[in-house]
Design a protein that fits this description.
- It is a single chain.
- The chain is mainly beta.
- It contains 1 helix and 11 strands; from the N terminus they run ββββββββββαβ.
- Strands 1, 2, 3, 6, 8 and 11 form a 6-stranded mixed sheet that branches. Strands 4, 5, 7, 9 and 10 form a 5-stranded antiparallel sheet that branches.
- Strand 1 and strand 2 form a beta hairpin.
- The longest helix has 5 residues.
- The radius of gyration is 15 Å and the shape is globular.
Length: 128
């Protein structure tokens, strides 16, 4: 999973792993704040979006609602690292779409986004 994630300024937002149990997929992140300033998360969202958007074409997207997130925190303190896990109902991604994961910071506009392909999800580790 080292190839999935985003880094901006002093925030590192990597996807550490994808796991599956029955019909639930778990996405594990290890978000690191390398600055001394607290990072207030406005939201982390999951979208199914078109891979390619041509000129004058409507963008097709569908927001995927997490079943839960652990821990239920909204701030990453300065010089700290937080492991977060989101669970989503099991799904497959059509060939012309990607799963996009976005994170916005409150009151600043810092925006991070990266895509996850269907191959990454289909190679999820099984939780027994």
């Amino acid at each position: 999973m080292k190839h999935l994630g985003m880094r901006a300024f002093d925030i590192v937002f990597p996807l550490e792993g994808i796991y599956i149990q029955e019909d639930v997929i778990f996405y594990s992140f290890n978000i690191e704040n390398k600055s001394h300033i607290n990072y207030d998360i406005f939201f982390i969202k999951f979208y199914m979006r078109d891979k390619k958007v041509f000129n004058q074409t409507a963008i097709q997207e569908m927001e995927m609602q997490p079943l839960f997130k652990l821990p239920d925190i909204d701030t990453i303190s300065g010089k700290k690292r937080v492991k977060m896990v989101f669970s989503l109902q099991e799904f497959t991604i059509p060939q012309d779409k990607n799963l996009e994961i976005e994170m916005f910071e409150k009151n600043s506009g810092l925006y991070m986004k990266f895509s996850v392909a269907n191959d990454d999800i289909s190679n999820a580790n099984l939780i027994k």
